[in-house]
Design goal:
With 301 residues, this protein is of the alpha+beta class. It contains seven helices and eleven strands. It is globular.
Length: 301
């Protein structure tokens, strides 16, 4: 199918506390701003809010069903989260073609907003997606070192160079729950034959599940419980497969004490050392549950 600049697709969804809890169990991110109404009520949100990566999971349904459609391969994803998404709100998930690249990939504008108040934007950003039949040339390069930026040298027990790593192996049950919760039925994550036809060795792990590994560490380990995700940038360098052990890492690259902001480098590598995902995260630590010194389980770069 030929895509044109300005092509748009959208759908609506109401998220519930049960959805938040299910995504917490799936991603391992039980950050209290998502799951603990008492804690969240005392935060600047005033109540529990959706995981940013749950919104990403639901938005991926648009890529798989609407634009560009079944078999789409996600290559890049960027998000800003200007407002929280609360239970019971009807939300509009929309994607619009911004550009059609010479190689057939699409540059998309993505927006998640409140149906009754479009000015209340929950998430906005961009994506680069390869429609079915367009096979990206993944680099399979190893991850490089994180680059430190000028900033403060201390904030709530956090210091530049601190990092956290966590390993995870996704299984069939994880992929099934992802599809049931977010509604993303991309055949690349469901059928080995379809995955092989697209140039992979079989079914692949959904991209929002990979991003959920960062959500888990940022919201529960480093910076810690109560962290709010403000911005993210994800670049997918290769596919990940069910059954293989993946290692995710987040490392602090900058602290801004006056704004209570932390920048981090985020990477995922496969068991063979290949870089699966390379990203950057900006998080708010205003609601951090533990603002004391971090213990010995946190590395230093």
């Amino acid at each position: 199918m030929a895509w044109n600049v300005g092509d748009t697709a959208s759908f609506r969804r109401v998220l519930t506390q049960e959805d938040f809890n299910r995504f917490a169990a799936l991603s391992w991110d039980d950050n209290p701003i998502h799951c603990d109404p008492v804690f969240a009520a005392k935060s600047h949100f005033g109540g529990t809010v959706s995981h940013g990566m749950l919104l990403y999971s639901v938005l991926s349904k648009a890529f798989s069903e609407l634009l560009p459609g079944p078999g789409a391969i996600q290559l890049e994803q960027e998000f800003m989260f200007p407002n929280g998404t609360y239970t019971g709100e009807e939300i509009v998930f929309a994607v619009t073609v911004k550009a059609v690249n010479p190689d057939g990939t699409l540059e998309l504008v993505t927006t998640v907003s409140k149906a009754s108040d479009p000015a209340n934007v929950k998430a906005q950003g961009r994506a680069k997606v390869a429609p079915a039949g367009v096979k990206p040339d993944f680099s399979h390069t190893p991850a490089g070192a994180a680059v430190q930026e000028a900033g403060d040298d201390y904030l709530y027990g956090l210091k530049p160079g601190m990092f956290k790593e966590k390993k995870r192996t996704f299984n069939d049950a994880d992929l099934a729950e992802y599809g049931n919760l977010g509604g993303d039925r991309n055949p690349l994550m469901r059928e080995d034959e379809f995955g092989r036809a697209a140039g992979f060795t079989g079914r692949i792990v959904p991209w929002p599940l990979l991003a959920g590994m960062f959500s888990d560490m940022l919201g529960t380990d480093l910076p810690g419980r109560g962290t709010g995700w403000m911005k993210q940038k994800l670049i997918y360098k290769s596919a990940a497969y069910p059954g293989e052990e993946l290692t995710a890492r987040v490392e602090i690259t900058r602290l801004r004490a006056d704004k209570e902001l932390v920048n981090l480098r985020s990477t995922i590598v496969g068991p063979d050392g290949r870089l699966v995902c390379d990203g950057e995260s900006l998080v708010l630590v205003r609601n951090l549950a533990d603002k004391g010194d971090k213990g010995p389980n946190f590395g230093r770069g």
